[in-house]
Amino acid sequence: MQIDVRPVRRLRESAAVRAVFPPVLEALAASAADLAGLRVVGDWIQYKANFRDPVMARPVLAPGLPDGEADSWEIAVDLRRCAAEGADVSGAMAAALAEAAPQAGGRDGAPSPAGDGRVWLEPWVPGSASLAWGFNALFWQALADWEKASGREYEQSLPGGETAARDTAAARDLILGLFKTWDELQARRALPEELYVLELGVGNGGQARTFLDEFLALDRRHGRGYYRRLHYLMGDYSPHVLDRARQAVGQHGERVSGLVLEATRLSGSVGFLAGKAFLVYISNVYDNLPTDEVAAIRGRDYLVQVRSYLPPGAAAAIAERFGMPPADLAPLIQRLLRIGPELLSESLPERFGDTGQAVLFWQAAWQALRQAERYVPLEGLDTYQVTPSVTGEILRPLLTAEGDVRMHVSNGTLASFADTLPLLHPFGRVVCHDLFTTAAGEYHNGFFGPGKYDGSVVNWVNGPLLALLASRRGFDVQFSPFTQRPGTHIKTLTAQVRD
Ligand SMILES: C[S@@+](CC[C@H](N)C(=O)[O-])C[C@H]1O[C@@H](n2cnc3c(N)ncnc32)[C@H](O)[C@@H]1O
Question: Which residues, in sequence order, are CB contacts of 409 under 8 Å at separation 6+?
């Protein structure tokens, strides 16, 4: 049996964390599970809202066996919740181990024929295809409805309670860097008339507003008339969010265009910018794009598949609160994700008296949403498509170097980044404030998502993988701490053509 404890600092420092292990070991010794093949993984899930139960069983499927046949099992323990006062570690362990024990089926983590009360919402899928992303997209499409019900703005749930992109000192440094590049090009008569900046993922427009306010003020001092040549393009997949951002940029309206676009497929929408963008400016978006996870377990590569569900107690409570049989929950959630809360309430007025009621149903479902997980063998990294143009081979150096490890593939980010690099002017840059891992080894001792922020999903981005992709395309990537906010986990990625 293997025991892998990731938050080693917490293990050293906290007696409460260490106290989780005796009941874990007792439960293991008492169970009928095949301990020889078992792995126990301890994480510290820092996101209070997340998709996991405090203890969960994950089947590791066997290569070459019929679909769903488990070779071995992993028991995942959230040390944060298990170390909390009153946590029933023994009970949670016993329930998880019952899934992994042969008499409970020992198959694929799906409910026994009689069912265990979970309300399953989707089949097994790679993480990037989960319906959790439907919830995420709905959050941005119907943000005002959500915020009205929650009484708080989404920005409050970002790291530090405010986006890094509204930091005026950071914006000023960025703009002065642009001015320097432009002055040099101007001196060589090589500066194009149109100066393009593209922002991806605009939220409430605070990032654009800060940039444009600072730009205007600095340009007045600098005196080269760059402001009137500036084209600031705001791109987002939510028309609602774009409207809001347009209002926020107010006086800069003439310099700004809004584009509805999918950040993971840019060539169609902003392909006209190829070779022209001096800055692609992104903040807190990459951590919000769909991702898979892969794992190396005992030297073999696996894709993590997930399956969303509502736990029995929560499902019963939601069904009772909204006056419906539990069997209606899954179809209603799927319908909500397709048409949004407003149309849901219009189409079912007897169940949801107004949009607000439908939003409460949405929030309750999101809060309760969990994901079961299983490991499915990858029959060769090249058979796994990371993005339409990148295969899993790109993962090889990171997986080979790290031994047994589980990491994000950051599929949405890689697709977006790969489409962004060709947009850059030879002297242009991508600047992105976000949550990045910067060494593959970090995955051995931390938890990097998924977590829930209000109604959206957060996953740290696999920085070394982005750097690999960029380097194969002739670009350099650097990560620097966001020095303007000491103690934050936010880092700034800068990508530009390699010298
Ligand atoms: C957390 S907000 C960040 C807003 C702003 N950049 C900031 O730092 O405050 C994420 C933004 O990305 C947008 N977004 C998320 N996924 C997207 C996608 N696949 N394509 C385009 N926009 C997306 C959301 O609509 C939202 O406006």
Answer: 128, 291, 292, 293, 294, 386, 395, 462, 465
Determine the Cα–Cα distance for residues 25 and 422; give it in Å rounded to an integer. 53
Q: Tell how strand 491-497 and strand 424-434 pair up.
A: antiparallel
Rounded to whole angstroms, the Cα distance separating 495 from 466 reads 10
| Nearest CA owner, ligand 1 atom 9 | 163
* Beta bridge partner(s), residue 375: 60, 304
* Alpha-carbon span 136 to 181, nearest angstrom: 38
- Answer for the pair 403, 4: CB distance below 8 angstroms, yes or no: no
Q: 180: part of which helix (H) or strand (E)?
A: helix 168-187
Q: How far is the CA of 449 from the centre of ligand 1 (A)?
A: 17
**How confident is the model over 325-362, as pLDDT tens digits?**
999 999 999 999 999 999 999 999 999 999 999 999 99
Q: Is the dihedral of CA 187, 190, 195, 197 positive or negative?
A: negative
Question: pTM higher than 0.85 for the full model?
Answer: yes
Q: What is the best residue among 198, 237, 247 to mutate for testing ligand 1's pocket, by most ligand atoms within 8 Å of CB?
A: 237
Of all protein residues, the one whose alpha carbon is nearest to atom 27 of ligand 1 is 203
Pocket test for ligand 1, best of 261, 284, 285 (most atoms within 8 A of CB): 285
> Could you give all domains of the chain from N- to C-terminal order, each with its CATH number?
1-116 (no CATH), 155-290+383-497 (3.40.50.150)
Distances in whole angstroms, Cα of residue 475 to Cα of each of 174, 398, 497: 19, 19, 4
Predicted confidence (pLDDT) per residue in 261-279, tens digit: 999 999 899 999 999 999 9
Distance CA 228, CA 232 (A): 11
Q: Is the CB of 287 under 6 A from ligand 1?
A: no
CA atoms within 13 A on the CB side of 457: 27
416: number of Cβ within 10 Å: 25
Of all atoms in ligand 1, which is nearest to the CA of residue 453?
A: 1
- Cβ-based neighbours of 263, under 8 Å, separated by 6 or more: 200, 201, 235, 236, 237, 285, 289, 412, 416
Q: Which residue has the tokens 């919740």?
A: 81
Where residue 151 falls (left for φ over 0; alpha for ψ -120 to 50; beta otherwise) is: left
Beta bridge partners of 58: 74
CA of 455 from ligand 1 middle (Å) equals: 13
Sign of the CA dihedral running 343, 346, 347, 353: positive
**In this predicted structure, what is the pLDDT of residue 115?**
67
